[in-house]
Please model this.
Amino acid sequence: MYIKIRSLADIEEKGLRGRFIAGGTDLVPLMKLGLKNPDTLIDVSGAAELRGIECSENEISIGAAVTLTEAAENPDIVKTLPALAQSAEKTASLQIRNVGTIGGNLMQDRRCIFFNQSASWRSTQPKCFKAGGRVCIQIQNSAVCRAIYYSDTATAFVLYEAEAEILRNGRTERAPAADLIAEHCAANGLYSDESSALLVRLHVPIPPEREKSAFMKYSVRSSIDFPLVNFALRVSNGARPAMAVAGAVAPKPIVLEKASLLLDEKSLSDAEWTSEAAGEIKAASGLIRESVVPPKMKLSSYRLIGELLKRVKLN
Model:
């Protein structure tokens, strides 16, 4: 069953339960492969509460149904949150960005070459955690799913310490976007055909005036592919702590705590910092087998964070 709502009130008034959908660029391919089979699709793309980008003195508020193109081209986001604009611009292809939404990019499915396959291919394998089974085919002795979370915009939202506005069990709440992403990624390692919460808006604090930030994505075929790795980085010249975040290397984005502290201390050369950051990513990442990407290539890509640091400094 397919239902399109006009406001969040419709969800409670009609007692709707099912899987939320807006652009559908992530969910529909999964349904075609038989990986998701929701009884009810609740289209939230027309809900007024999820639309629009609003800029105030203290924050930029972005509706979850805002498209990636709208976010990438919005003048306030481009000027104030450059890493976010860059991450949206680098996601997928133009056609997908014109349809895909900010909320969908954050709440996307984690991916694995043993899961994202046709039904006939998967019939030759035991059911993994994401398919309702009790094993991770990638890492046989792992107690949890090791599929990777490939969102580009999530890395930037974590960098800017955004807050997520969520509708859960009929009540609206706010929580750090990083916490919502971690919760989503953990739940996404298990099978479910219903959404537990609806992301309504993202509230991003205005960064300090002196802050510099940027985003970098590396993939085999530019923006068309999922990232091999992505990074977001900020330096604030003492206005607030520096931060470096790595994405597409684990089941959720990784905040590089040690490397972030070293950015503020300024005790290392750029080359030394790059080595420290790459080592921290390697230690925290969950290296698995990925399509057409040898592990050695994946590991070497971690050092590209040094190129992002140079770009931020030159900005």
In short: The domain at 48-315 is CATH 3.30.465.10 (Uridine Diphospho-n-acetylenolpyruvylglucosamine Reductase; domain 3). Residues 217 and 230 are 4 Å apart (CA to CA). The mean pLDDT is 95. The radius of gyration is 19 Å.
